[in-house]
Amino acid sequence: MKSQHQVVLSIGSNQGNRFENIESCINLIHQEVGTVIRVSKLYETPAWGFESDAFYNCALLLHSSSSAQKILSQVLKIEKQLGRIRSDKQGYQSRIIDVDLIVFDDEIIESDKLQVPHPLMQNRNFVLLPMKDLELNWKHPVFQKTVSELISITPDDSVCTVVQELKNPLEEIPLEKFNYIAFEGNIGAGKTTLVQKIAEDFNAKNVLERFADNPFLPKFYKDQNRYAFPLEMSFLADRYQQLSDDLAQFDLFKDFVIADYHIFKSLIFAKITLAEDEYRLYRNLFDIIYKEMPKPDLYVYLYQNTSRLLQNIKKRGRNYEQNISDEYLDKINNGYLDYIKSQTDLNVLIIDVSNRDFVKKHEDYLFILNEIRRVIR
Asked: 143, 171, 199 — which closes off a domain?
């Protein structure tokens, strides 16, 4: 299930340096609104409905968890930032930049300020032709027609000419150069949410831990001494089974795979929770399993301070986690950091996300992507 909305925006400019206006607008949308996933070619199109200089137009596909209304207010701010002054005059006018919200998932929205899909999109080649470049799996929810079908029946006969290709900001962050990335972090660090978001944005295959299905977990939090060994053994068996099954489906030389855990986390937690004799037995079994596991090309540790972790754990509201102590979280953090120091053949990146909220703040999400980009060779 997708956690983000698929949004199509149409951008136009017919004043000043049209190309620069469009490029600046795309970059600002990517920085401030959501992840720009695809960008169409740049088209030159005659002014529609009034006499004026020709427009440059393009369309882009955006991923965002914001509402359509919030996205609209964000793009209006960007128009203003780029120098657009909206006039009260009726009719069409020249403009330095114009951004329209065309599509928001498969939704039909009708309000005073926003109509989606855009009510005139089917009559505008300068919207339809760039949209076709985006290769969307989308049908107009009112007309039940694809973009190609809308183009074939549009009454608009204006000629739209391709000027050039446009840069997609996401191309500057080629995460897929790593075929297999494992994200790790303490309880409540947000690694699963991050992995799901990156998988959607980069069209990656993802492997998510099935921790919620473990029957020993609630029992362990009530009586750690009694349930530590069966818990750690069941986690190890489940992680081994899942990683073996899931990674076997992919070609780790061709596919881009991201996981929200690495098998080594089993040993880190076991060292904290198990008595010494139990840990020795566990370690023997773990070493046999570890040799068979594919190693990630990049291991990303999301470090978060303990007070922030406790806030996140409280917020997500899992009953069995509510009594986790700061001392236990400190031990896990130290276990991870000791493990990372001991690794000589693992490509490790530590990102401090203590003061960042990559779920609600798009700039914090981009910060993480850029930190990873810095280690791409």
From this structure: 171
Same domain, 118 and 149: yes
Same domain, 241 and 163: no
Burial class (CB in 10 A: 0-12, 13-18, 19+), 94: middle
The answer to whether residues 198 and 204 touch, using CB atoms and an 8 Å cutoff, is yes
Q: What is the CATH number for 81?
A: 3.30.70.560
Residues 154 and 10 in one domain: yes
Q: What is the pLDDT of residue 92?
A: 53
| Paired strand residues for 13 | 56
Q: What is the pLDDT of residue 367?
A: 96
Closest CA to 57 of 117, 103, 9, 92: 9
**The pair of three-digit structure tokens given for residue 309, joined into one six-digit string:** 């972790």
User: What is the number of structural domains in the chain?
Assistant: 2
What is the set of active-site residues?
Answer: 260
The mean per-residue pLDDT over the stretch 90-113 comes to: 85
Q: Say how far apart CA 100 and CA 116 lie, in whole Å.
A: 10
Q: What is the pLDDT of residues 282-306, one digit of tens each?
A: 999 999 999 888 889 999 999 998 8
